[in-house]
Each structure stands twice: as structure tokens, then as C-alpha cells.
Amino acid sequence: VGCVGVLLARAGQRLQVLNDQSFEHETQASTGGTTGSWLVTFGEGRCTSCSEVRDALELADEELRSAYTIPALVDRADSAGLWKRFGIREVPTTLFIGKGKMVRDTGQSKDASDFVNFVNNALEASTVGEKVPPEPSMIDKLLDMVRGIFGSGEL
């Protein structure tokens, strides 16, 4: 799984851990083809507020799952592609994803009840939200590799 750091290192946790390889397969975010929704928090290993969000999600886990929403974590160390895809610029960032749409938590959610309320509001307003960005195509991935090798200059 790579370097997962403090954000994900917790014995017995039920929170789903996602990364560049597993995200689309597990969530089916861009197609909306999954049954249920996801509450995904993007964080990084040594971030104190990320750990606090993780703890809140663990407390809310059962209630979120009863609303057919799976809480999950994405660590920066093994998910650079997801950070780019979703435009993540600060941590922690939490997204509600369901039916091909996503709603960004504005940072107001601090504890378990806040996250449950955020999910309930997102579920009630199912037509609200941004379209989930598509997975990068193979051509996009190849271009990123070439840019990485030769720099970010124009080809």
C-alpha cells in the first residue's frame, strides 16, 4: 500500500482506505454505478486536523453506513493522481460522492454529528453538486509521464 503514515495507521479501523489504484473500482465515482454513496476525506500522514477528522469519521461510521454512505480515507502519499483529479489543495478535504456527483464539505464539519448532518443534507439535495471529474484517460497518463520526464514545458 506504500507509505500510509499516521493518517491511516490505526488498528481495527473500519474506515475504507482508498488510493490511486483502488478508488474508481471501489467507488465507481465517475459512473455513479454503485449502490450507496461515499464520504471521502483527503489527508496526509502528519496532519493533526486530518487525524481529528479520521476520529470523527470513525465515531460516525455506523450512522453513515446506515445511510448507505461509506466513510473513506485517501492519503496523499499514494494518491497523487486523485489529488490532481479532484483538485485537492488543502488538508483535510472531505467530499460526499454519490450518483456521479460530488459535494465538497466547506470545512464546517468538525465532529461526528457534523459529518452525519453533512451527508444527510447532501442526500436530501441529490441534484446539487458538481459532476465527478472523469478518470484520466491513458493518453492523459502518458502525457503526464512525458511531462515528468521532460519537464512541464510545451511539447
Describe the structure.
The protein is α/β, with parallel strands linked by helices and 155 residues long. It has a single domain, classed as Glutaredoxin (3-Layer(aba) Sandwich), CATH 3.40.30.10. The chain is 39% helix and 19% strand. It is built from six helices and six strands; from the N terminus they run αβαβαβαββαβα. It has helices spanning 5-8, 23-27, 48-66, 80-86, 112-124, 138-150, and strands at 16-18, 37-43, 69-75, 93-98, 101-104, 130-131. Strands 1-3-2-4-5-6 form a six-stranded mixed beta sheet. The longest helix is centred in the middle third of the chain and has 19 residues, at 48-66. The protein is globular. The N and C termini lie far apart (34 Å). The model is unreliable at 1-12 (pLDDT under 50). This is Thioredoxin domain-containing protein. InterPro entries: Thioredoxin-like_sf (IPR036249), Thioredoxin_domain (IPR013766). Residues 16-120 form the Thioredoxin domain.
CA-CA gap between termini: 34 Å
Structural class determined from secondary elements: alpha/beta
Low-pLDDT regions? 1-12
- What is the total number of structural domains? 1
CA gyration radius, whole angstroms: 16 Å
Let me know the average pLDDT.
Answer: 85
Number of helices: 6
* SSE ordering: HEHEHEHEEHEH
The proportion of residues forming helix, as a percent range, comes to 25-40%
Under CATH at level 1, the class stands as Alpha Beta
CATH architecture: 3-Layer(aba) Sandwich
Order of strands in the sheet with the most strands?
1-3-2-4-5-6
- CATH homologous superfamily classification: Glutaredoxin
The 3D shape can be described as: globular
What is the number of strand segments?
Answer: 6
Kindly identify the CATH topology: Glutaredoxin
Proportion in β-strands:
15-25%
The major β-sheet equals: 6 strands, mixed
InterPro entries: Thioredoxin-like_sf, Thioredoxin_domain
Organism: Polarella glacialis
Pfam family, one: Thioredoxin
Domain Thioredoxin: 16-120
